[in-house]
Amino acid sequence: MSPPHQPGTSRRRRNRRRRHQRPPPEEEQKQEILRSDFSEEQMNGEKNINGILSDDLLSNIFDRVPVHDIYKARLVCRRWYQVTHSHNTYALLFNKYRAVFSMGTRDGRVEITKLRQQKTSVAVTDCSELCLAFAEGGNYSELILSHHSSEVVLNLPSLVTRSKATPMYSWGVSCARESMDLKVVVYIPPDPYTGVKVDEFHVLTIGEEDESWRVVQAEPRVFKYKPVLITAGFMHWVLHDDRLLTMNLETEEFTESSGPDYSIGLSGEVKNTYLSTGKRLSLLRECGELYWEVWEMDPRMFAWRMTGDFSLEEHRSQFESTGKDVALIPVGWVKYLEVLVLCADLGENTILIYNLIKEEMEKMELPCRVCYYSIHPYVH
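Structure tokens predicted for F-box domain-containing protein:
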């Protein structure tokens, strides 16, 4: 493992912000956009819920109610928040220009929500309500962060570096696990037009008193055509040699690591596809024709373990009806280790759903055509 890239001053010493003073009106909007913001009034109003709902009952609710409905219910008590962020609930969010829809499971069935209008971008967030985008009418250094339901729009400080070559799907918005600070990370690749010759990561903490971008530079190795992957408290970028660069959102330290070792006897071309589960990072390794291994990484230890494998040979007729070889690409988990989404050249808005437990495959029509790199998981 390569040594971590240090961002300079440790973030742990700067994370303690004064919270006993009421922020000025312009700062209160920033607090509204934080998902972990529980007021005293909310806590007092919901204190009876803490003693009524058992963890078993909450788990039963999670198994029966789609994730997007849990989020919309907005049952705000601290234990509800803690359990929803520790329970294995997953959904995939699909972005299309100014519209989104999500895919989840209910009683073992895959369900898709209706297409709803809201501002979108290909930047990845861990919350379906948040959108990181360029400011309208601005240049490539002016960004906004908006929250759909509350209609709060934050104008972020101007980026230190601007670049027309920046790939927005390599940008991320997520929370640190301990402090619950909401952080924006913008990746900017080398750009001959601006003279930047290294990879730059611009980091911003929302609501911080000295709110400003912190810039971390690294040698140019990030594969900019791969989207950033967000897991609980971490962001991951795929490097050109199929290694990973991982950022700890709490400490803002970067660590480079490799994927799992290859099995003995593997021959031919092996394709690795990294996917976020919402909680952890998974790797689907195509080791042979229509055969995949499934691996999972512990981001704190950077250790991989194999969780299983599967073959789609018996389902070949469902995606090779034309008689031509069709490349299958895993694009996301609907439910981790159970329901996987794959894309193939089956039409503009058709995808494949494979249930690893039942070993069943089905085709599913989406409400509209989407760009597959805009699909990402969120957990609520």
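The first strand starts at residue 2 and ends at 5.
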